[in-house]
Every structure is written in C-alpha cells, then in structure tokens.
Amino acid sequence: MAAVKAAFWAGKRILLTGHTGFKGAWAAIWLTRMGAQVTGLALAPDTQPNLFTLAGVGERLESHLADLRRPDDVAAALAGQAFDLVLHMAAQPIVRTAIEDPVATFETNVMGTAHLLQALRAQRGLQGVLVITSDKVYTNAETGRAFAEGDNLGGKDPYSASKAATEIVVQSFAKSYFQSVPVATARGGNVIGGGDFSRDRLVADLVRAARAGAPVVLRHPEATRPWQHVLDCLAGYFAHLEALATVPGTPRTLNFGPKPGGAQVSVGALATLGVEALGGQPWRHEPDPTSLEAQTLAIDASLALRALGFESRLAAPQAVALTMDWYRRQAAGEDALALCLEEIEGYEAAS
Q1: Predicted confidence band at 344 (pLDDT cuts at 50, 70, 90)?
Q2: Beta strands in the chain, from DSSP E residues, in sequence order
Q3: Mean pLDDT for the chain?
Q4: Is the pLDDT of residue 253 over 70?
Q5: Judging by DSSP bridges, how do beta strands 265-266 and 224-225 pair with one another?
C-alpha cells in the first residue's frame, strides 16, 4: 500500500469537519501528529464516553462547535481563515437514527454539505476538498456483487439515500463553482477501531455488553459488510486528498474498503471474533423483520489501488484484535491518546 507521507501534511492548514466523532477524532490525532495545522468544525460529542474527550483532541487543534445545518454559523466559523485542504467527515452516520428521524439526517448530510461547500467558495488557496460519503450510496439489489465507483447511486433507507444525494450535491458544486479546485468524494466501508462508543455500532455494542456482563443482541448476524480498520480507512482518505492536491487526473470518486478479493465477513462472524477477544458472553440473535438494512454489501476498492497505489493492510481478524486490545487497555486505565498514537506509529512503521 502507499504510505502516508508525513512530510506532505506538515504545516498544511486543514479544515476537518466531524472532529468530535469517532473517525474524526482519529483523523485529528493523526493529522496533528504529522504536523498539520488543523481546524475542526463539528457539533459537540453526542456520547459519554467519547474519544474526542478521552484523548483530549480539542487541545491539539483549533476547535469550533457549530451546526452545519445553520449556514450562518458555518460561515462565521470559517470567516477570516484560509485552508489548504478540506476533509469533510461530519455527518449523521447511524442507519437506525436516520430511520427514526429522516428529515434531520437529510438536513445534516445533504444540506450540511451544501452549506459547507457554499462557505468554501470564498476560499482562494484551496488545493483540494474531499467529502466522505459511504459504501451505502449504491443501488443495492442484494446480489452480493461488489460495487464499483461507476455503479448507480440509490438508497432504500434514509441514511443511504442521504449519502447518495450528497454525492450529487458535491458533483454539482464541483462542476459549477470549483473548476480550478479538485473536489471529490470517498466512499468508505464499515469502520471499526478503538474509541467508538456510538449507538447501534457493532463494536461499541460488543464492548458495552462485555463490560456489563451481558450478551450483545444482533438483528442480522448473517449480513455481510466491508469491514475496515479506522487506520486503513483514514490512510486511504489521506492518500486520496494528497493525490487530489498534487496529481492531475486523480479520480474524483474512490471506494475504500477491504483488499480487493478479500473474503466477506458476516456480522455474526465479526461479533464472534469480538466476543472471543473480550471474553464476553456469546451474542444472541433477535430478528427484526421491519429492518430496511441491506443483507449483503461489498465494495470494489481496486480503483484506489490502481490510481493511488493504496490498499487496506489489516484483514478483519487483525482489525478486530487491534480494536479490542485498545478497549481492554483503555478500560484498564491506559491513556486513550497514548493508545491511539501507539497504533498510528505501529501502522506507519509497517506501511
């Protein structure tokens, strides 16, 4: 895989949205470790505990708490600032939350992105903008075929539809207002890693259940997902954004997921690995016949390999082991930031 180049990021002025979330906090830690000057824009963390607070991420960057649904707040947060690169990760990312409150999800994911891009039109030194969407943007007929970047966009549930709509919004802004600035999207797989305490996320649910001495309940243990460790996913995003800024003709849309041709891993299989690593109780199956979630989902990440020389390095068992080790050590009293930095350093050394 292509290595993350610290020298490229050193001194770069980065706008990172969603820095208070799970992936965003990891991104902030990694970027600031490489010497980037990071400005964060996001809502306050919505869980207790959360990685942003545990790792003291707010002390590593300039943090602005603002709601992307409010364009005046976004414009005010960015006023007077100049950025080289933008990594837009802020979103409402939970499928079941989107089903419960679809309007708020569309407001955040679609209009929030539009408000950000509108505010960025005033920037004069931008070298690249990368908007993170999802592996769920594709029209999914449940065939099990891995989706490639040229496949049709769709979404039968509000979350998936909001991310597909975001892709269209980004494309329209890119063609209408950013002809001289590369504006692109990245579609990441299902991400796991230490420090995720979100609602309705498999690893977070496994950790909560193990700490409570209870079995985790799975709705669809047979469902398959393109599982990916957070460091693999972020390394792909960083490689994409670097290439947008330095390599003409870099694709404006890329999938990031498991290695091309890798085995599909079910929810149940991943949960079993997690239970074994944590020493928790076996998971329990409680079907949800009303669920709109896809049973099969796979993405083809081979274009990222061809265009960037990038592919994920950690297979699902390795990703689970690294993730559960983080939670065990953090629960035992080790510092969350030190654990993240240790994993980042190990990942870089092995690249």
Answers
A1: very high
A2: 13-17, 37-42, 62-65, 85-88, 128-132, 183-188, 190-192, 217-218, 224-225, 227-229, 253-256, 265-266, 284-285
A3: 95
A4: yes
A5: antiparallel
Query: Is the alpha carbon torsion for 220, 223, 226, 227 positive or negative?
Result: positive
Is this structure's pTM higher than 0.90?
Answer: yes
Q: Which two tokens stand for residue 100?
A: 């419960």
Both tokens assigned to 338: 């030190």
C-alpha 77/C-alpha 73 separation (Å) is: 6
Fold annotation for 6-350: Rossmann fold (3.40.50)
Ranges of each domain in the chain: 6-350
Enter the DSSP assignment of 58: G
86-137 residue pLDDT tens: 999 999 999 989 999 999 999 999 999 999 999 999 999 999 999 999 999 9
**One-letter amino acid identity for 128?**
G
Is the predicted pLDDT of residue 143 greater than 90, yes or no?
no
Cβ-contact 211, 63 below 8 angstroms: no
Our CA angle for 48, 278, 339, nearest 5°, is 60
Nearest CA to 315 among 255, 239, 263? 263
> Which DSSP letter does residue 59 get?
G
The Cα 247–Cα 234 span in angstroms is: 19
